[in-house]
Amino acid sequence: MLRRLLTIGLLVGLGFGVFGQPLEVWLSITFAESFNEAIREMVLEWSEKTGVEVNLILLPDKIFNEKLINAIETRITPDITLVTEFGDALAYEAGLLVPLDDLVDRLGREDFWPQALEVMYLPDPATGEMHIWALPIIMEPFYWHIRTDLLQAAGIEIPEYPTWEWLIDAAYKVNRPPHRYGLGIGFGVGWDTPTTLYFLVALYGGGFVTEISPTGADIFNTEPTWRLFADLKKWWKDKLIPPDAIAWADIDNNLAFMEGRVMCILNPTTVLATMVRTDHILLPGTGVVNIPPVIEAKESILVFRSTPEREALAKDLLYYILSDKERLRVEICDKAAMYGMPIFKSQAEIMSQKIRAREGVYQYALHDLVEPIRRGEFYMWCNTVPFPYGKAHPAWEAITSAQTEWNRFMTKLLLEDADPKEVAAEMAAWMNSILAKWAK
Amino acid sequence: MKKRLEPYLYVAPAVLVIAAVLVFPLFYTFYMSFAEKILGQAISGFGLQNFREVLSEGRFISSLTKSLIFTFVAVFVKLVLGLTLALLLNRPFRGRGLFRAYFFLPWAIPWFTIAIIFLWLFRLTGGINTMLGALGIYPVFWLGRDLALASGIIANVWKGFPFFMVSLLAGLQTIPRELYEAAQVDGASPLQQFLHVTLPGLRNVILIVCTLSTLWTFGLFELLYIMTGGGPGDASKVLPILVYETGISMYQFGKGSAMAVLTVPLILIWVFVLVRLLRREA
Fold this sequence. Notes:
Number of strands of chain B: 0
Shape of chain A: globular
Oligomer: heterodimer
Helix content of chain B: over 70%
Order of helices and strands of chain A: HEHEHEHHHEEEEHHHHHEHEEHHHHEHHH
Radius of gyration of chain A: 23 Å
Number of helices of chain A: 19
Strand content of chain A: 5-15%
Radius of gyration of chain B: 23 Å
């Protein structure tokens, strides 16, 4: 019996040695089912065409993130990760990534949004040469979902390109607490808190990190943040923000909007897509707008170091997926209520045309959503890249993923009525303490 | 010689498996707690820096306190509820088997599902407030700063009491009927019978279920992580959430390990007390 088992083990081992292990691809499941399915189909098509076996693993985002971090720590990595929302910088710092410059050139460098290529354009730790270490597969813009029906009822006109001042003014005009709140921004434990602050700090002209040093976050403890925090307190006290927003999970702002509790929220169009799919009662009175600076979460592609042959195969598979630009746009944009902004300018232009033609799901865009992106009024990869630093860094990943800490500072500001300057100073000191660890 | 070695050979595979899955991670965590180690990076030094940081920040003590409150309140309520139901279900009545199965149901539901259910129930516009609203009662902010930990305890008790109930029910059935008959002959009231026959008879079962439940509740991560994420503020940030956030989310593996190591003495003390109590009984 034992001999038989040993023989089987030996044969399996030899099999792997001779034929090699399948190419391993991890896909973090996106909200857009059509996109997930399209990626799966494209991987299968490529596999059939080339005869290369691919092991595609679809994972929910939280499990994906943990699995990726474990892979980086143990250095037992897959060949490709797709829709990676977190951990790119950690993987780069660990020296595990393959540069993707050649893939970018093959796909047409001029067709990419340049900002999307910049944030992971970093030196090779070994040679110092600059390379692109990650690409977005989609950009995930955070749009303002607004209740157009409420605004119309209140006689408020929606300008073609709304501003923040307009939004706050409108929010006050339709505010009816405790039944309806003007401003649906959440500060609970989740990604929405850093994302919302990312937007607001940028809007107020502030910043988070200037350099990776023990004083790199000093910029946060300056006048723009103090002003923002003072305004946040005012909106909180005026009951413009729902009182439970301090305990919102990432889904709660979506629900608050769909329950009719808030006039507006900042979110990817997962909300709009759900409303379209369910033919929600509030859908006819809902629209989405961009208020610059637009926050673009990244969903990136990483290729991990292995052997030259495997790396080449991985890039070929990626080329197969990304070169079908039209298909990617249809799956992530047309079929998913504009959930993903195309990474290619040419496809974004098609999106722009469809918005202007008010075609299908694009009718819910109240203006050309591509325009601010075209003008460069956006920030990329908020959970990986601090501004004005502008490059992906694991220290920032560590800071943004400490979501209970962000919530703690907001609790102090809003519930404990702490001084804005005191909270800004504490938050900057906390960020500096993390930056200091990476600056060593 | 061969005969003497034989028993060791039989247990060797089990010992090796336990060493691989239990002892190694334990020692590795202990080792890491002294390491200046960021995830993905090589160890940059050794020392007591992690412990110094953990103990000086105050977050650890705050989370430890919340963990202790969460654990002891939850275990106490589970014990009281489990014992009450066990006593009720130990009496003969029609449909007793059905009720036993019914009350055991929550135990069969995974923590993840329990967390989602209670998250939906406790939201400001969730199930409980909808019911309260129907009664004309103003909504309660169950997941707010004042009630977040208590809401977690309610969810924990709901899932955990069947374990107490079933274990104590089994314990009750081992107490000889003659003891109750003798007590009745001596004129003992139902309360005296409970205090002097039932409770001593259940002593070992209570000790064991309380110990197991304490260890499980103290180390429980997913319930509060999903329901509250540890917030608002630090209101429900129990130790497992703090350790996870520090070690995994913030990439500070060494510091997270130090936090985990600092809880080991507490657990050891609890197990030591239990063993002493059980020995005294023996």
